[in-house]
Amino acid sequence: MQVYLNGRYIDHSEAMIPVDDRGFLFADGVYEVVRIYGGRAFLMQPHMRRLRAGLAALHIEGDVEDSLTDVAERLIRDNGVDGDGTIYIQVTRGVAPRRHAFPDPAVSPSVYVFAKPFKQYPDDYFNTGVAAVSVPDTRWTRCDIKSIALLPNVLANQQAHRAGAFEALFVKDGVLIEGSHSNLFGVLDGTLLTYPSCNYILSGITRTLVLEMARELGIPAAEAPIPWDRIDDVEELFLSGTTTEVMPVARVDDRVIGGGTRGPVTTRLQQAYSKRARG
Amino acid sequence: MQVYLNGRYIDHSEAMIPVDDRGFLFADGVYEVVRIYGGRAFLMQPHMRRLRAGLAALHIEGDVEDSLTDVAERLIRDNGVDGDGTIYIQVTRGVAPRRHAFPDPAVSPSVYVFAKPFKQYPDDYFNTGVAAVSVPDTRWTRCDIKSIALLPNVLANQQAHRAGAFEALFVKDGVLIEGSHSNLFGVLDGTLLTYPSCNYILSGITRTLVLEMARELGIPAAEAPIPWDRIDDVEELFLSGTTTEVMPVARVDDRVIGGGTRGPVTTRLQQAYSKRARG
Q1: What is the CATH T-level fold of the domain A2-117, as seen in this structure?
Q2: Which of A205, A250, B174, B235 could cross-link with B187 by S-S, CB 3.0 to 4.6 Å?
Q3: How many angstroms away from the CA of A101 is the closest CA of chain B?
Q4: Which residue of B has its CA nearest to A172?
Q5: Cβ separation of A138 and B142 shorter than 8 Å?
Q6: Distance CA A184, CA B216 (A)
Q7: What is the pLDDT along chain B (279 residues), one digit of tens a residue?
Q8: Does residue B172 have an active-site annotation?
Q9: Which among B3, B139, B181 has CB closest to A100?
Q10: Angstrom distance (rounded) from CA B225 to CA A72
């Protein structure tokens, strides 16, 4: 596989970074995962906007993101990703002797990009739903930045994995927040709910699309949290994300959600998503 | 400079890690900084115990830490660090294709170690004290793990740096917690206070030593938080840490602390520290 690293197209096996990269020492960087359908990047522009916002939040300077669309297209072509795939983009503050404060003067950011085929999750996941576990939200309070400081997400996701579940759902102050690598939607009292866009969640590109599709379909929706103590009243629950798409959750811990399978609102949104993504 | 990377002693300029290292992609690892005085590692054993605890908390398997004392000694020798210095040790979960859950089967952890001379901070810092800024504590709730997910610490430290201050002090729920790379002590109503050892702080090796020295010196001490709204009543304030040692804080934001210089409790603890460290 050819990957892009700091201006060069090289084989993945040769893609190495210095130990002094601040991504390695401090998790000082951001990333994006973009979906490829039929060999074409899906929603590249919103992903680039979010990347730009993340770089600005971390005060990482440089016009690194300007060329990334071209880089992604070349990697898709060179690696023959003509079906489903993903693009991964990571930008860190760059390489400098280890100290917490930013290097002064600033150094060039490190940019790493790959594009590769993505094997879609099994049909069952989308048709009947997946299991999830609830976990305490241990993360920092700037989850709106898509940073590579993902250790809490890793630990939560591993907890799901160990329990044979697909996703871990963060619970904070008595409400469901989002998944370890997806956003969360639920239908409660007939209204589609998702946690408000703020510093406690990563505002997903697919999440925004789901809200947009719900509006178009006339599905009543609100950005409001789902209280954990009302989990037994939740009629439908689903995850949204770049690789997760719109994925029903049939069970959380030992609770069966709604009818224990995909519900009607989820189905309609899946169909709308499929139309957008696959045309 | 010779460094150690995964079993090899190589020049620092050649020390590269694959982009798939989970330290680079997920901040999935821990680290230690150990002080060298007169060419000898100081308090190596407690640092190794903490490293072991961190690896256990992250379920990173392997007896990586057993040989680290030997590795450190060789690096000190080979790099001629015969005065003051630091040893840096970082262990990540290893190299694996990017997915959140742990690689299964497990891969070998990546181990990176360097030892180099450390230029002591200016005498003024220790004699009259440094400035600090207060910042909201944005970090995750497992600060007891010395993880490389240091982005919040970086941002806080940079805020201090920008303000011309030495350290940023995290404030959470109305109390002072600790610094971005040091622990915090204060004297209030004649008692030495420091935030209790729990999941909200990194329990520093120097912090433990300070508490031990206070006991020996008969200084009344308690593990209790310093309320932010009592900052004007604080008689002395100091940082503790591996490179910070025992460093007075003369000012926080626009508040002068105590007499605006090093206080008597800080002085006694500095003297006791110096005796332990430099004999």
Answers
A1: D-amino Acid Aminotransferase; Chain A, domain 1 (3.30.470)
A2: B235
A3: 5
A4: B141
A5: yes
A6: 54
A7: 999 999 999 999 999 999 999 999 999 999 999 999 999 999 999 999 999 999 999 999 877 777 899 999 999 999 999 999 999 999 999 999 999 999 999 999 999 999 999 999 999 999 999 999 999 999 999 999 999 999 999 999 999 999 999 999 999 999 999 999 999 999 999 999 999 999 999 999 999 999 999 999 999 999 999 999 999 999 999 999 999 999 999 999 999 999 999 999 999 999 999 999 998
A8: no
A9: B181
A10: 50
